[in-house]
Amino acid sequence: MDDSFEQFLSWLQSWHIYPTLADMDFLKQRTAHTCIQKNTIIMKQGRPVTEFYYINSGIARLFVKHNDEDITIAFINAPQFASTIHYLLNGLPSPLAIETCTEIRALQWTKADIVAIKEHTSFGNKMEQAFTETLLNWNFEREMSRLIHSPEERYQKLLKTAPLVPLQVPVKFIASYLGIHQDSLSRIRNRLLRKT
Q1: How far apart are CA 165 and CA 155, in angstroms?
Q2: Beta carbons of 72 and 176 less than 8 angstroms apart
Q3: Using CA of residue 131, residue 113, residue 99, residue 34, what is the dihedral sign?
């Protein structure tokens, strides 16, 4: 099995989902392997979601345009999902957008692929439930962090949990994610450098 499926299979197993060999063969038939260039919008705000991704390498950002302001909500680091299965399956327009910050290598599925996987495998419905639960947990953790941690604490957490983000993502997106101006982020970085 190739590495791109190994990571995805590990994620499934972390949710106690164990596809049969026949399930895996079907999944492979319905899965596209894609390489997406840096600065590509893979989910457009206000448009129906058409693809679902499992990022094997690279970084993307979840953002919203509001009153002519570009607000970064989160960074999506490999290995992780990008897109929302609920919007994909229901043909709903996304309230958010996803843009690649680096080149991304990912597994990709369309709505037809996800529907077929749910209908023709033993794990499809469990997989959808796990996707949804992952998203809910992620949203809860993100909101709690915004409520109880200062921008500096959130930046330190970003350094620990996603050390490539500060190295590969433009400062303006990191500052937006923290809810501060770029000058404030520079002061936080300088303060942290002096502590080391």
Answers
A1: 10
A2: yes
A3: positive
